[in-house]
Each structure stands twice: as structure tokens, then as C-alpha cells.
Amino acid sequence: MPIESHTYWLEAPYQLVSKSEFLDEEHLAPDAILCESIISAISPGTEIAAYTGMAPLRPGKAYPRLVGYCNVSQVLKCGREVTNTKPGERILTFSSHRSYFIISEQDVLTVIPENISSEHASCTYLYHLGYDAILKSDIRYGSTVVVIGLGVLGLNAIAMAVNAGANVYAVSNHDKPTDIALKLGAINVFKRNKIDQLENTLGRSLANTVISTTNSWSDWEVALQLSGANGSISVLGFPGRGVDNIPINPLSSQFFYSKQLKIQAVGLSPENNDSRNFLPFNEKSNLTFLLQQIENKKLNPDLIISDIWPWHQLQNAYDSLVTRHNSPITYLLQWKD
What we know:
The chain has 9 helices and 16 strands.
């Protein structure tokens, strides 16, 4: 009998529907893998932006669309040409929020070690976004880093920067994320009406790197203000998204030119190494490394997992993230007991 898979689609803003798809397990392609989802993590920035109808980041039709991409699943069956994955293993993929699916072996991001929980493993790509920011920002042992915004991206950027040996400060108005940031090793967190105090704390040299994780133009102005000479602003957020006008000059010469700042988008990396191994910090290798960091207790996903919801309550989880009651960081969806 075909396997029924429950799959979430966003038909329009706030219109989330669960649809059934049927998978034929008896006729798998030679390189195909049949999987059953265990846990999937919500990526709040991407998913809530789509849920609330914010402008898409890329050209093309915004709806209908699948939602979710942080999936931990168990391999049920493999095609005859699959060589690096076997039934019973747990794998990390970019599959959406769904109960069962079939993918090609090349779409497996990494196999999850046995002693890492599925809940923790589902957060790995969320850490990868912060890890990519650290790699591209040339953050060194002893660098001074300021992270603006303490959603899941900001907190994971702090975790990565602290592990890299940086002196990390943050900007946030919310108490719960502030407490988590301090647990992660941030030296101090300043509210937005205390930026002058943070500037005095940083001293004349200011920050080597500012990591911006919000859409706010006022936060962008703070990033320009706190960046030191020849410093960089690493952009994990999307300045101006959802805003109709630009109240400031985002490339004001008193900051951008006078300080000779470097501004760069971060968060995406090559998916695979190349044939000559010239892309060592590729997505798949990075995810394997980050799982090792979780395994070795260098990263603690419990600090960013606010709750676990049954899969059929995804809309309730989204609504909670929209209202931000009790300052949730991210939620997980439970697909299999």
C-alpha cells in the first residue's frame, strides 16, 4: 500500500493547510531514500516572514509554498544504488515539514551520530547560519563582536563567536533572550536606549565586526555607529524588509566611507566540496562539524528550543511566534514518538 504523507503548504499569508500525498515505496529510484520524519525545527525568520506575508527574498511566485527545512528523519528504505546511507540511520535534510518523503541520496546533508538526540540535531542548520557569519567575518581570537538582535540567529551567532574566542556584546530589548545570551558567554547585553553606554564600553576602537540580524533601519544605523575603522558589518538579517521608507542614509559617508567599512551578506555557503577539495568549509562538512560540537557539549540547543509541539499544531506554533508571548526563540515539531 502507498504511504500517506502529511505535508504543510502555505497557500497565502496566514493560510496554512495540511495536505496528503501518497508515496510508492515499492518502486524507489535506484538513488532514492524513503524517510520518516522524527523532528523538524522551525526557522522563525524565514517561516514567520512567509506566514505573515512579508515580501519574498527572491523573485518568483510567493504562494503556494512548502514551509520548513530543518528536518531530522529516519531512513526506512534505500534504492539499490544508495551506498552511504542505510535503513535505520537518522539523517539531516532540507525537507519541509512533512511526515514521510523520498529524496535522492545526494540530498542527504549528513548522518546523525547515535548519541545525539533528534531534538538537538534538528537545530544544526540554525547554528550553521551563525557559523557561516563567523567564517566569513574573519573573526579571530580576541576580536570584538557586537550582535544586534537576539532571535535564534543572533543567539547562535553569539554561541559561534564566543567559541571562536571573540569578546561578544549584544543589543536587545528583551529579557529572556538577554539571559540566554549571557549564558552563552556574551560579556554584556545593552538595550537600544543604552547604545551610548555600549559605545563607551567598546572604547575608541569600537567593534571589529557587527553582526546584524534584524530588518530595522534604526538597528542598521546602530551597526554603522558601532563598527570600528576598517571593520565589517555581517548581515544575517534583511535591512528594510517590510519597511516602506528608508529614514536614514544606509551608506552615510560619516560611517561607511570614513571608517572604510566592509558590508557583506552571510549565512549561505557552498553545499559540497569541489573535486580538488578547495571548498573545505562547505555546507555538508560544516553541518557534520557542528553535530560534533553538539555531541561534545560545545553547543547546547536546549537554550534555543522554547517548546516542542505536535506536528498537527504547526499553525498554533506559528501564531505563538508571531505574538512573541514569553519571547520564544524557536519551536520543534514532533512527528514520531
